[in-house]
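Follow-up to my earlier ticket, as requested here are the two runs.
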Amino acid sequence: MITILIGHRGAGKTSLLRRIQSYVPHATTVDLDEVIEKAEGPINDIFSRQGEKKFRELEKKYFEQILASEKQKPLYISIGAGFEGDFPQDVRVLWVRRETDKYGHIIPGRPRLNPQASELATYRERFLSREDRYRSESHEILTIPEGFNRPNNEEKNFFSHQLKNVGGMITILPNQKLDQQWLNDRLQFGIDAFELRDDLLTSEQKEWLLKHVPEGKLHFPESVHDLHHRDEGETLSDVLAHLEATNNAKKPLKLAVKIHSFQELLEGDEWMQKDPHNRSFLPRSDDGRWQWYRLLRYQMKLNFIREDEWSALDQPLLLDWVRRPPHAKIFAAVLGDPVAHSFTPAEHSEFFASKEIPVFRIRMTENDWKSGALDILQKFGLRYAAVTSPLKYKAAMLCRGARPCAPTFSSINTIMWNDVTQEWLGINTDYLGFEVLISDIRDKKNIVVWGGGSLLPMLQHFLPDASFYSSRTGKLKQGTHLEKPDVILWATGHEGSHPPLSWKPKHVVDLHYHDFSPGLDYAERIGAAYISGMTMFQKQAEGQREFWREYAR
């Protein structure tokens, strides 16, 4: 079998290809870009001297040569995001995607498709058309959870066809290419059932599924009494009462309305727990914020797995689903807003997996915190948490410092629940990472700090002579106004204003580690040396694990 890996620039196709080689040692793996560079020279040179059109022609040429020359099977080929060739009928096309594809990815050193525009702008211009093409060409979609860039058992089991007893249900979507291999793979996974919805599928699709899916593996929505919508202003108590009162046929109950708060989440959970064999609670949201809850309660009578971005965002991804320890009683999390892009679950996965503790992303706003969300999470089983913006100051006000002599800078990013004393303990490990991040630039003059947020006291402590600018207004808050800074320390997100391009600093040091950071975009646009916040993230994460290890005894 020949499998073609397609997907957006920066989605991780090349790194996944290397992992596949370790998962399936007898397979042949080929990166089309590497083949082209070996034969024709650096891709940057091809783009700059001959243009994108010539490069696309070379892609087709060498792709066809690979197919003709590589006789060993299985064969995996990774191709570029803009590949314009055709695929033979006898190959499988796997769309490799990430949830953050919609934001864009910047790969330093890669050729610019449009030299007159930023890489992010060019990426976003082509995003929708490429999404449509990937969707139409792919037989299968694999979404890689953020940060899982190292070999892991879940991916290995997927590619070596060893996924077993997965459970859960899959809703068949209208864009799913229905073929026997796709179905057989999921039957082998041990999927509990496939949901067939009349409002999604054509008569031809339903006919195919009824013919090929074993009878015991089909689920029809009419077999349960469900509720997916609630009136504006309607309380959850009223929703539950209505659901039960209208269940004249005494069918199993499924509640899948939008849930607006952690208090409602707890209420829905308590309702489900009273009769778990006949009740399923599948909270929904506009942004997928309750995905963690569905993972926590994965053994519910009805629960769904998501492979396609068209599914409800609160449905867990396949690889997240199979990664969850089956007998977990407690859990860890990253708390903040936003957290959908956080690498924290991946960074701490091995540490907590040895304790059979899952790590979730839980979006929590300041209002959620004020309304008692942390207490509710503690009832659900939260024991360890990494805390990010905008909650670090709130955590500092709540927690007793576990290490009285350690600096906190009015900010705590690491907490754990002490079952003995019934209190939250917390420390700040951000400063450990920040010291490493700025080790090469802290002695430089003319440093500008752009933004700061909850980290501002720490930044002021370590860089007392820097000039501090508000990312919201772009105005100087502290220090000397600089026309030509040597270094910009990037401490803000996508919101607010950005430094003038005319400053042209030599270095941009970013507190963020994502490949769609505006700090990285700024550095690329002006040609500055870029230092990612990944080293800071990893060092502070080491401190978090040390703290949890010490105080969990």
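Run two:
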Amino acid sequence: MTAQISNLFKIKDKEYDLIGSSGDINFDPRDYGLTPVAPHTANWRGYYYEANIKDKKLVVENLHVNNATDDYPEINGVKPIDEKAESSFYAYYNVDLPIDYTGKILLGYGFLRRYYQHMGYQDPHAYQELLMLTFNNGELVLTKDLSEKAADFRKIVEKDPAAYNKNIKSDLKEYIEKSFSMEIDDYYY
């Protein structure tokens, strides 16, 4: 199994990995006439996006997609750019599609390579910076910095890595399912 390409989130000239959410973010390229298919094992969804906050509203700023057919429609007045040779995707830049999302989104920046796992999505404590954003109907209402909490959790892991790994991997099926889940654990609220 392969680590997955994360959706990205731009905040103040930094690109954060979108590593979790409290509910479905309600963005689907199928709503725009596309049928995403996996271009390779690092992207089973067949797409990823770069989100941003514009005028306090959550938007998909850029969309990268591998469509089931070679037909890529114009979306929101934006024509796609063929970047398949470089990235396996067509890209829609500055497409600015609004996302009417209510819930929390967990973002990570400054990935610590020593915590890399070669399956699914990366764990929240594997990032130096951790932010929790809260949205109501697509509008940002709260930003909470959880970086210190992630650092404290890393100290626990580093104190006894063998025990930590044994504990989280004791139920292999659950461990695999969780690795591919974007659901936020209660620990991070």
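The only thing I checked on run two: The longest strand covers residues 127-136. Let me know what else you need.
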